[in-house]
């Protein structure tokens, strides 16, 4: 009955009902000057924060996984880590490795979808992947094959390709055997080859000459390319533990959008995602991924957001490589989850979703009930930077016909792989010229 | 199941499971279009059921022969980072990976906000769709 009460209370919140499917970009141009850029997005997590209140801590990984169909693992990982932080437990050893492997699967499937089916068509002037598939069926097939391998990793470890069901606070419901993981080895080797091809392929695209002085923010781990944990660092001096997130980052209400804008209190807009991870953690990539990046002409600091498609491909190489490394060293853990007792407190979690850092904070009472939740997804954090890019990008291309300018703006936004549920192809885009 | 009437496809599949012979596979999908392509790889006849949001009366049942014609795209939701039903069917058509027969049932939903439970009018449509699906399955079996 307790759960039913919480359900009814949260359903009354109408964020979703008012903004479902709405993503829009509004550009105003006066003569040769851009006078307004408004990027409006729909952000489901605001609703989920209310939805979680009053529920048990153990429901958080499964409920928050529903926020996103393409990065549910990130939500499960950040929520589990935050709960474990609150209860003072640490998931280590092979259980931790298994979580990392699950994350590899999510990165492969998410990046493959974005690189091949969503972003690449923009570089060839196609409306979508369906048009591209008419001319390049083999390339699209390769993308589907890569995505399928990512799906298979998530299915095997998570139990389902979307919204996996095997993750729990403290570990997993079921730990897999070495033999089970070995079934992925050959598939991952093939996927790694496709990912290497993707790096070579995307390196040949024609990139606009566009670089900005961004503040890149990502996790940084002492030894690993970051998935699950680390300090939060930036190229402009940020170096904090995840516990300090709220001291440095703030979410702002902006009049024209229902999504909150996240910014660094000290400096404003910042950039999260593959490009940030790559720039801040190049030295943590596997030798093969580093070599692929070098051969694609990428140096450790790439400031051209359009080249994020190459970086995503490099990260696919890394994720396949890392998955194979984990499987090679894996031994089934003795227990699938660490036993613990929930205690009252506040827990913090931050992991690297495919499109950037995903921060969760929960306050729990001594019955293990969630008193409040804060979830800051990557897209919310990139919003200001997306808008800033457009302010800088549009003036260079003002003379283009409006349709071409719209297309190029879509492409610029897509660099960030934003999470917007839309009723049409991408988003409503309006250009006002005076 | 957490998005109101969006669960109507799952609800229909779960009802249908009780009424079809063993040699008919009833699969539940989570909306990942690319996974659909995989699931119908070796099938000759596929019937896909999903919620739609086209502005008609809640509970309205739409039926499309997707092997013959593209779906009206406005019936299905698109996203910046996933491939929906309409898109994946067209991609599969381009890559010659459509099953010989692909029927799509779209059930008009009323509310898609977070929360568990299907609207009464949409729930009524579930039984009707199950009946129609049983007839479809019967006629496909007769033809093959």
Could you describe the 3D structure shown?
The complex is a heterodimer of chains A (434) and B (144). With 434 residues, chain A is an alpha+beta fold. Chain A folds into 2 domains: 6-39, no CATH class; 46-413, Cytochrome-c3 Hydrogenase, chain B. Chain A contains 16 helices and 14 strands. Chain A has helices at 2-11, 15-19, 45-52, 60-65, 72-87, 93-124, 129-135, 137-158, 178-182, 185-203, 245-248, 274-281, 287-295, 308-329, 378-393, 402-414, and strands at residues 24-30, 33-40, 167-168, 171-172, 217-220, 231-234, 239-240, 249-252, 261-264, 345-353, 356-364, 370-376, 421-422, 428-433. In chain A, strand 1 and strand 2 (33-40) form a beta hairpin. Chain A is globular and about 65 Å long. Chain A starts with a helix and ends with a strand. Chain B is of the alpha+beta class. Chain B has a single domain (8-143), classed as Rossmann fold. Chain B has helices at 8-17, 33-39, 85-94, 120-143, and strands at 45-52, 61-65, 78-79, 101-108. In chain B, helix 1 (8-17) crosses helix 4 (120-143) and helix 2 (33-39) crosses helix 3 (85-94). The longest helix of chain B has 24 residues, at 120-143. The chains are: A alpha+beta (434), B alpha+beta (144). Chains A and B meet through helix 1, helix 3, helix 6, helix 7 and helix 8 of A and helix 2, strand 3 and helix 3 of B. Strand 13 of chain A pairs antiparallel with strand 3 (78-79) of chain B, so a sheet runs across the interface.
Q: From the alpha carbons, calculate the radius of gyration of chain A and give it in angstroms.
A: 21 Å
Judged by helices, strands and strand pairing, the structural class of chain A is: alpha+beta
Q: So, CATH architecture of the largest domain in chain A?
A: Orthogonal Bundle
Mean pLDDT of chain A: 87
Can you tell me the number of structural domains of chain A? 2
Poorly predicted runs of chain B are none
What is the level 1 CATH name of chain B? Alpha Beta
State the strand order across the main sheet of chain A: 2-1-14
- Tell me the number of strands of chain B: 4
Q: What would CATH call the class of the largest domain in chain A?
A: Mainly Alpha
- Distance, first to last CA of chain B: 35 Å
Question: From the structure provided, what is the oligomeric state, counting identical versus distinct chains?
Answer: heterodimer
Tell me the strand order in the biggest sheet of chain B: 1-4-2
Q: Which bin fits the share of residues in helices of chain B? A: 25-40%
Summarize the amount of helix of chain A as a percent range: 40-55%
CATH superfamily of chain B: HybD-like
- State the low-pLDDT regions of chain A, or none: 1-21, 421-427
Query: Could you tell me the radius of gyration of chain B in angstroms?
Result: 14 Å
- Give the overall average pLDDT of chain B: 83
What's the number of extended β-strand segments of chain A? Answer: 14
Q: Tell me the domain tally of chain B.
A: 1
Family (chain B): Belongs to the peptidase A31 family.
Protein name (chain B): Hydrogenase maturation protease
GO molecular function (chain B): aspartic-type endopeptidase activity; enzyme activator activity
Organism (chain B): Candidatus Jettenia caeni
């Amino acid at each position: 009955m307790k759960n039913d009460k919480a359900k009814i209370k949260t359903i009354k919140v109408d964020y979703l009902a008012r903004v479902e499917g709405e993503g829009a970009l509004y550009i105003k141009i006066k003569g040769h000057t851009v006078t307004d850029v408004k990027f409006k997005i729909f952000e489901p997590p605001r609703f989920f924060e209310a939805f979680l209140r009053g529920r048990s801590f153990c429901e958080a990984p499964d409920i928050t996984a529903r926020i996103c169909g393409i990065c549910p693992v990130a939500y499960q990982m950040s929520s589990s880590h935050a709960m474990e932080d609150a209860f003072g437990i640490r998931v280590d050893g092979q259980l931790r490795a298994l979580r990392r492997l699950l994350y590899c699967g999510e990165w492969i499937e998410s990046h493959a979808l974005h690189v091949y089916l969503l972003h690449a068509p923009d570089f060839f002037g196609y409306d979508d992947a369906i048009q591209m598939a008419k001319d390049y069926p083999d390339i699209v097939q390769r993308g589907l094959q890569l995505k399928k391998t990512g799906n298979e990793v998530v299915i095997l470890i998570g139990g389902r390709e979307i919204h996996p069901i095997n993750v729990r606070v403290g570990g997993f419901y079921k730990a897999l055997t070495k033999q089970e993981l070995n079934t992925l080895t050959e598939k991952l080797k093939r996927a790694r080859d496709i990912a290497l091809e993707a790096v070579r392929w995307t390196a040949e695209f024609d990139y606009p000459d566009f670089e900005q002085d961004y503040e890149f923010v990502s996790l940084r781990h002492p030894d690993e390319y970051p998935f699950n944990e680390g300090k939060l660092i930036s190229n402009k001096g940020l170096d904090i533990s995840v516990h300090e997130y709220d001291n440095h980052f703030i979410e702002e209400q902006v009049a024209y959008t229902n999504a909150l804008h996240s910014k660094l209190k000290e400096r404003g807009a910042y950039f999260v995602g593959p490009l940030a991870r790559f720039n801040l953690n190049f030295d943590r990539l596997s030798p093969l991924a580093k070599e692929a990046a070098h051969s694609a002409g990428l140096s450790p600091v790439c400031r051209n957001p359009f080249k994020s498609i190459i970086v995503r491909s490099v990260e696919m190489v890394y994720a396949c490589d890392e998955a194979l490394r984990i499987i090679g060293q894996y031994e089934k853990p003795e227990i699938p989850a660490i036993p613990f007792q929930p205690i009252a407190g506040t827990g913090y979690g931050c992991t690297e979703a495919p499109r950037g850092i995903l921060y969760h904070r929960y306050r729990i009472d001594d019955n293990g009930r969630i008193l409040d939740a804060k979830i800051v997804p990557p897209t919310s954090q990139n919003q200001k930077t997306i808008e800033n890019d457009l302010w800088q990008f549009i003036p260079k291309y003002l003379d283009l016909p409006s349709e071409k300018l719209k297309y190029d703006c879509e492409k610029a936004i897509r660099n960030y792989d934003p999470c917007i549920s839309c009723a049409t192809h991408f988003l409503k885009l309006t250009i006002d010229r005076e | 199941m957490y998005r109101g009437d969006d669960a109507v496809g799952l609800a229909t599949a779960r009802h249908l499971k009780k009424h079809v012979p063993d040699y008919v596979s009833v699969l539940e999908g989570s909306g990942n279009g690319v996974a659909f392509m995989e699931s119908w790889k070796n099938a000759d006849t596929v019937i896909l059921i999903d919620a739609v949001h086209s502005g008609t009366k809640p509970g309205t049942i739409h039926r499309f022969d997707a092997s013959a014609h593209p779906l009206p795209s406005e019936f299905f939701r698109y996203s910046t980072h996933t491939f929906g039903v309409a898109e994946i069917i067209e991609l599969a058509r381009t890559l010659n990976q459509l099953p010989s027969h692909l029927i799509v049932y779209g059930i008009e939903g009323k509310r898609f906000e977070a929360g568990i439970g299907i609207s009464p009018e949409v729930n009524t449509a579930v039984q009707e769709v199950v009946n129609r699906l049983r007839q479809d399955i019967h006629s496909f079996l007769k033809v093959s």
